[in-house]
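Example record used in the benchmark description.
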Amino acid sequence: MTSLHLKRLLRIQAITTMILRHLQCSELQVLSLPPLLSQRKEKNMNKKVIRIAAVISAAALLCGGIYLLVKNDVAQRINWRDIMIYAPTPIARETLDETVDIEKSKPSADRVPEDTKEELTEQVRQLSNEHDDSVGWLYVPDTNIDYPIMQSGDNDYYTRRATDGSYLYAGSLFMDYRCSSDFSDFNSVIYGHNMGNGTMFADIPNYENEEYFMNHSYGWLTTENDVRLIDFFAVARTSDTSGLYLAAPNFNEWDNRLRNCASIYKEVEVTESDHLLMLSTCTSAEGNSRTILVGKIIEESDVE
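Model output (structure tokens):
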């Protein structure tokens, strides 16, 4: 597909060259005409040149945009092919999905079979052996969120990099560099792009719909040592400089701030000794508005 778009661009360049040559020949002919007629011809020609140039520019921009979209999408697919060996297998995903089916029973990490837990944690350990910056794997049933979580010494490196450090427009999911990599902080913040093709954290704004929220209230966090259930209880819009991004905030201030800006807040018991997971993505392409999805990490006990 890439070579096809390159051929189209080259074809446009060839057409542009032919048009310019034709215009040069026409200009020589105009010089030999009477002055008044020559001026009229020149004005008409200038209008034609402007129109032709506008059409050529629009075509070039369109083809260039298509090329970049295709290129980025192909790069994402290649990257997924490289990391999917560390992702939950279809059988493991089915088990995790059934475990959070509230119509059957209360969701609980305790209901995940030990062999499935061992399989998932072993995959994360293998991922960590291959990529030192990986800290876990995030999976949210019935969404496109199924990715490794990376962490570097800043919050810029993985915004446009794949797990292996190569350039990738979609970037990777990554933990705030100020958070503890073992998710032991009160608030562990994970960032991801809101991609137009529906990947990465593009599903998070959907949580502002109450029905969607209630049907996708649980997720799974796998580390090298454990498989933990996430009970999502709030979605909100905030700024990228908000105090909600602090890893160890004053609990009462943080909770009040979240309640005030949340469009949905499901009442669950949250104390300052709990561990939360906050997923953050851009609300739109411009500005510093962010949509955040906040969940409580449940390690052993059932969700009440």
